[in-house]
Design brief:
Helix content is 58%, strand content 11%. The chain has 1196 residues and is of the alpha+beta class. The protein is elongated.
């Protein structure tokens, strides 16, 4: 995808068919961004068209992490430019074929990328006036020389070493003394396997494969094949103009570097402390000297010793003369120093060889003249590993500079241009990394200058360098100590062993070990003189550039050496100057995953890469920005030669406006600035349509412009006519406005003249209005009304006189004010007198209210005292009722105890009587038997025995028992004596009944109850009436329907008590005497059966009130929440009232159930009971009770 001229390319890690085919190249030629799917070819073609139209060189900056596809995208850009716009000559092919050669010497396998570029390059494709390719030039930066001698696990050295071992012919292999990769020290400490496919792996001979390759197999990559790539490299060398001799020279130096790494040293064992070559390294030394054109003994001496000059005369002549000079001292080297010297020589030789390869590549496509160029920058992206050294420091420093350039070009310059052109685009904030760049490259205090200063010391050390960095940037935000790292592995690093820099993409911990060594690019004098005096011309030429400055170096010593960091900084600044002078396009390469496998997309990692590359800020800017633009004069000049004479006089801005209107572009897609026109994102197709320069299209556009001009001019004529009409209307409006101004001024003058009289009249009128309030106040007075009314009338007449005077005469403001002030004073005096009278009346009223309040307070105290006495009386009565209840309960308990004792005595007497009866029965049986025996004897003796013989008196009196003239057998007598006291009491009561009311009718009973004066008859009638009610209700309950709700006339606790404890009947007369028509009142909780199951929490609990007149109920109330109260009176509501007597209800035994008469009467009156009872009395339905008698007395 892309945002404006920034392409975001994701590495798919597999070959997509026809994605980069020649047909695809043709389809993108001349097509603007947005018309075809996003592609690297679209960016390349845009750069070419910008160069062609704007006559300005262009740069394409390819960036991204290692393995993101930078090198491949660079090759695709170069292939597109040379294929599409090349001249068809051999030079186009050479530019493309130079890439395999550069990759062979500068690319290597890392853990993150199988074909990682370990150097940066800026490839320039130059074009002539006709915009055709005429040549190219390659600039390279910062080759990773440490990889030559050491590689990490699963990493390889540069590809050329493995390709030479795998693909060299037998003759070359024997001549160069090559073997498998595991036999070379510079290769066997990393991965020694080849890249190969199944077919090419079989073509590689077994003696060229390492044991690791034999065991694990070849490395697989769709773009890499060491054997095939070696052959392609040889073909590319031939195409770019390298003959066999030069090709062999390259291979010879590469092999010499491999053999140089196999030279080993050991201690001499002498007191000098030097070292010598091991015996097994003699053959290797011979191979190395032979391949590099050096003398074997000179190489041996130079590797084990170094020359220290004793005078300032310097060294002259050959290396032999140097060694034999009397002004030098030969210092033996230790084993470690000798190894470092060997590695330094290998790095120097390979580095010079790579420089030669790049120089030779540039020589193969030369150019004499160039109008413009398109440069493609491919440099290592931001790197961060577990262990980061000097190479990562330089690469990240380069990326900081490139990120700053990206911010300046895309964000800073873009926003400044928007502001300058007056487009009104919202500002986008971004992080400026200038402070990080200053930390690295600032003079004297920058890390690079501190490192150079450390190199100039007599005994430089990495620890001292790290301490100097921390001391000079102690409080710098971008720099901190390793202990503050978020990774545990970095926290173990001491402060003098590293530092952390907060880069734009994140914090990186650098280990300063070998920083000093890697920053020094110079060999010691022995080795440098040795290679400069090589017998091989090719090797000698590699170092001839440095030979001219050798003497000056030796004279100046360390103080004037050029460090690697300083050299890289200079190259980087030159590169950025070149980039700033060109137009820019960007290709941001993205890795979809860390495993380098296809079809695996890790969103979080990709988002992190986009944030590190600054794409978030770019998206914010481009969302509301204008990424494409073109100056007015360039568009005008492009179409000027096709315009007729009448259009050439147009202003460039007007012409562009006419052009866009003629094309019918949407006004929202572009915006005019002061000097150029800007386009919205994604509107490159419309922009490109304008930028086309073919004559037919331009002529058509000119016709459209002419047509638009005619239409616009006609509209202008119409607008002018409307303007004239508008001007005429404006003149009329101004004339009327002048009249209104005159009128207003005259009014103002008149108003200013009469203003004092008007103001005075207004104030006097306001004072006159206050007279009404004065009258209201006087009416509120109780005394002196007439006097105050007369004063108010006098004041009102004075005010009216002043108003008439103001209207009739011309008075000054001062006179009016004096008259007005006098009236105000009169009104204030009048008001003060009224207020005084009012206050006196209020004081009198206040005293009267105080007296009334005191009287009310006295009455309230009397009422409270009366209420207190009433409450005390109520408490006393309740205490008496409770005491009475307890006494009754105690008396009832004593009676029950006596009954139990009497019952026990009767049981004992009955048992004795049963025992005596048994004895008598036995005696009677014996007498009967004796009599029968006597009869039988008498019969046998013919004697007659009289039947009337008298029995024994003691037995005769027990023979029978009589009860009221009836004969009872002993068993019946026993049963009779066994009856309980309740049965005996009921029989006694029945025997004592004076009146037989069983055959009386209900009406007769009711009339007797209502009219009888006989107390015994009245009690008997009531008893019979309630007995019949009980029988009726019992029958009704027994024969009710199954689903019919139970009618509850009293709470369930009352009915349950009556069933479980039947009260012994008391004679009516006795009961009347006992009760003595006592009035008792009760209240207990009550829940209707219908609400019992609907309301398990008893929220609908009601109250049941009862008034007992003697033993029977007279009034009954039911109070339930959310329901009307139920009122019942004796006589009218007998069927709905409780039919039980007071003793049967057990209410006298319930604690707290009995209440005061006053409490019952308050509830009865509140619920409308008085009116209900009155209606019942008037309708002659109420039975005469205490309540009816009291109400009738009250009514009378």
């Amino acid at each position: 995808t892309f945002v404006a001229n920034i392409l975001i390319a994701v590495n798919p890690y597999y070959d997509i068919p026809k994605l980069y085919a020649p047909e695809t190249i043709k389809s993108y030629q001349g097509r603007s961004l947005g018309t075809l799917p996003p592609h690297v070819y679209a960016i390349a073609d845009k750069a070419y068209r910008d160069m062609k139209v704007l006559k300005m060189s262009q740069s394409i900056i390819v960036s991204g992490e290692s393995g993101a596809g930078k090198t491949e995208n660079t090759k695709f850009v170069l292939r597109y430019l040379t294929t599409s716009y090349g001249t068809g000559q051999d030079i186009d092919e050479r530019i493309v074929e130079a890439n395999p050669l550069l990759e062979a010497f500068g690319n290597a396998k890392t853990v993150r990328n199988n074909n990682s570029s370990r150097f940066g390059k800026f490839v320039e494709i130059h074009f002539n006036e006709k915009n055709a390719v005429v040549g190219g030039f390659v600039s390279h930066y910062l080759l990773e020389k440490s990889r030559i001698c050491m590689q990490g696990t699963d990493e390889r050295n540069y590809h050329i070493f493995y390709r030479l071992c795998a693909g060299a012919s037998e003759d070359i292999r024997n001549m160069l003394h090559l073997n498998s990769p595991d036999s070379f020290r510079y290769l066997n400490r990393g991965c020694t396997r080849y890249f190969a496919s199944k077919g090419s792996d079989k073509q590689i001979m077994q003696n060229r494969k390492s044991p690791e390759h034999m065991k694990a197999g070849a490395l697989k990559d769709p773009l890499l094949d060491d054997l095939g790539d070696f052959n392609r490299m040889c073909v590319a060398m031939k195409k770019i103009g390298l003959d066999d001799t030069e090709k062999l020279n390259l291979f010879r130096v590469v092999a010499g570097v491999l053999h140089l790494g196999n030279i080993d040293f050991e201690e001499t064992g002498s007191t000098s402390g030097g070292c010598i070559l091991k015996n097994q390294s003699s053959q290797t030394l011979q191979y190395c000297a032979e391949l590099l054109g050096l003398d074997e003994e000179d190489l041996r001496v130079s590797l084990t010793t170094r020359v220290m000059l004793t005078t300032a005369g310097g060294a002259k002549g050959t290396v032999i003369n140097l060694l034999l000079s009397e002004f030098q001292t030969r210092v033996p080297l230790k084993v470690e120093q000798a190894n470092n010297a060997r590695d330094a020589l290998a790095k120097a030789v390979y580095s010079r060889l790579f420089d030669h390869v790049v120089t030779r590549v540039n020589q193969c496509f030369p150019f004499e003249t160039s109008s413009n160029f398109i440069g493609v920058l491919d440099i290592a992206g931001f790197e961060y590993f577990e262990h980061n050294s000097y190479e990562q420091f330089c690469i990240n420093y380069c990326n900081e500079k490139l990120q700053q350039f990206f911010n300046e070009r895309i964000l800073k310059e873009e926003q400044e241009l928007y502001q300058k052109e007056g487009l009104g685009v919202n500002e986008v904030h971004y992080v400026d990394n200038q402070d990080c760049i200053d930390l690295i490259e600032a003079k004297l205090v920058g890390i690079l200058d501190i490192l150079d200063e450390e190199n100039r010391l007599p005994q430089p050390s990495d620890q001292h360098f790290a301490e100097a960095v921390h001391s000079k940037h102690k409080d710098h935000f971008r720099l901190t100590i390793p202990r503050k790292s978020k990774l545990a592995v970095h926290r173990n690093i001491r402060d003098d062993e590293g530092f952390i820099i907060r880069h734009f993409a994140g914090a990186v911990c650098y280990e300063t070990t070998q920083f000093v060594e890697k920053n020094n690019d110079a060999l010691h004098m022995s080795l440098e003189c040795l290679v400069c005096e090589s017998k091989d011309k090719f090797v000698r030429d590699l170092f001839e550039n440095n030979a001219n400055s050798k003497d000056s170096k030796q004279k100046a010593g360390k103080l004037s050496f050029i460090s690697v960091g300083n050299k890289f900084k200079t190259q980087l600044n030159l590169l950025l100057e070149k980039l700033r002078s060109t137009g820019s396009s960007f290709i941001r390469c993205v890795k979809p995953n860390l495993k380098m496998v296809s079809h695996q997309f890790e969103g979080a990692q990709i988002l992190s890469q986009l944030q590190c590359s600054g794409m978030v800020s770019v998206l914010d800017l481009m969302q509301g920005g204008f990424p494409s633009r073109a100056p007015f004069h360039e568009l005008y000049n492009m179409y000027k030669q096709y315009m007729p004479d009448k259009l050439t006089r147009l202003d460039p801005r007007l012409f562009c406006k006419a052009l866009f209107k003629a094309l019918g572009l949407n006004d929202m897609d572009y915006k005019f600035g002061l000097t150029r026109v800007f386009f919205r994102p994604g509107k490159f197709a419309e922009f490109d349509q304008i930028m086309r320069s073919d004559p037919e299209h331009l002529a058509e556009l000119v016709k459209r412009v002419n047509k638009w001009l005619v239409c616009s001019r006609w509209k202008k004529v119409q607008w002018c006519g409307l303007s004239v009409i508008k001007l005429r209307n404006k003149m009329k409006y101004r004339a009327s406005a002048c009249i209104k101004i005159q009128k207003t001024v005259r009014m103002w003058l008149c108003k200013r003249r009469h203003k004092p009289r008007i103001d005075g009249l207004i104030k006097v009128r306001n004072l006159r209005k206050r007279m009404e309030k004065f009258n209201e106040a006087v009416n509120g007075l109780k005394e002196g009304k007439q006097e105050m009314s007369k004063q108010i009338q006098d004041l009102a007449s004075s005010i009216d006189a002043l108003m008439a005077k103001i209207k009739a005469t011309v008075m000054s403001r001062k006179q009016i004010e004096q008259e007005y002030e006098s009236l105000v004073k009169k009104s204030e005096l009048l008001l003060s007198s009224m207020q005084k009278k009012r206050q006196e009346e209020e004081e009198t009223e206040r005293l009267k209210r105080i007296q009334e309040e005191m009287e009310r307070e006295r009455k309230r105290h009397e009422e409270e005292e009366q209420l207190r006495k009433q409450e005390e009386e109520d408490r006393r009565m309740k205490a008496e009722m409770e005491q009475k209840r307890k006494q009754e309960e105690e008396q009832r308990r004593k009676m029950e105890e006596e009954e139990r004792i009497l019952q026990a005595e009767m049981d004992i007497q009955l048992a004795m009587e049963r025992e005596e009866d048994a004895q008598r029965q036995a005696m009677l049986e014996q007498e009967r038997r004796d009599r029968e025996l006597a009869l039988r004897i008498a019969q046998s003796e013919a004697e007659l025995i009289q039947d009337e013989a008298q029995m024994d008196p003691s037995l005769r009196r027990y023979a029978t028992h009589t009860h009221n003239g009836l004969f009872l057998c002993p068993v019946q007598a026993c049963l009779c004596t066994n009856r309980g006291p309740q049965v005996q009491a009921s029989k006694a009561a029945a025997g004592m009944k004076k009146y037989d009311l069983s055959k009386w009718k209900y009406a007769e009973l009711r009339d007797a109850i209502n009219t009888s004066c006989d107390i015994e008859l009245l009690a008997a009638c009531r008893e019979e009436f309630h007995r019949r009610l009980k029988v009726y209700h019992a029958w009704k309950s027994k024969n009710k329907k199954r689903n019919t709700e139970t009618e509850q006339r009293a709470p369930k606790s009352v009915t349950d008590y009556a069933q479980q404890n039947p009260a012994p009947p008391v004679p009516a007369r006795q009961q009347e005497i006992t009760m003595n028509r006592q009035q008792r009142y009760f209240r207990i909780p009550f829940i209707r059966p219908a609400d019992q199951y609907k309301d398990p929490q008893n929220k609908k609990k009601g109250w049941w009130y009862a008034h007992f007149d003697g033993p029977w109920i007279a009034r009954q109330m039911e109070l339930h929440p959310d329901k009307q109260p139920i009122l019942l009176v004796a006589g009218k509501d007998d069927m709905e009232m409780c039919e039980l007597s007071l003793e049967e209800t057990g209410l006298t035994r319930k604690r707290g159930a009995e209440i005061l008469p006053r409490q019952f009467e308050e509830i009865w009156e509140r619920c409308g009971g008085i009116q209900y009872l009155r209606n019942a009395i008037e309708s002659k339905q109420a039975r005469p009770t205490y309540a009816t008698a009291m109400l009738q007395n009250l009514l009378k």
